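Annotated sample (chain length 188).
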Amino acid sequence: MKHPVYALITLTLALMIWLPTTSQAQDMGLSTAQAYEMSQNDETPVLFIDVRDPIEIMFIGFTDAVDANIPYLMVDRSQWDSEKNRFRMYQNPDFIADIKTALAKRGMDNTATIITMCRSGSERGEPSARFLRENGFENARYVIHGFQGSAAKDGKQKGLRIINGWQNSGLPWQAKPNPDKIYRMDSR
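Output written by the structure step:
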């Protein structure tokens, strides 16, 4: 049996590692309503980026409230991830450069507020905002529940993403992407 002091030290160290990450995520996180309101405010402009792979957008939906689609992670359809039972994803090597280009098009710089949104907020939304902050974009934020939201835990609709998120908040969205805003390889 471990000595109680060792258990306390282990717990303290774990909290020291976990708390900064958690508080930073809370500091960066926005509700869908907050993100929408900020994206519509002309007095304090933001750069609102959908960071999902364009193929995902094609099947799930899109909102024209975003300024552009710049994927943070992209699908590699030649590699299968058997642990996650899906195609492997890799970080978009042009993500930072594309963000800089989008900022410049709007007359903004790296001090501007950048809001990222993925499907659920966890796998790409929060990590992309953190990555932007690590690369000098100090005001990067993300939409907590993302575009599609969380899945129901029980009931007839168990597993369906109907709990929260952009689509479930009554905010504007459409089934098809806007070709002027979607990330396209032919326009690179």
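Annotation: Residues 1-23 have pLDDT under 50 and may be disordered.
Annotation: Helices lie at 4-28, 32-40, 54-60, 95-105, 125-134.
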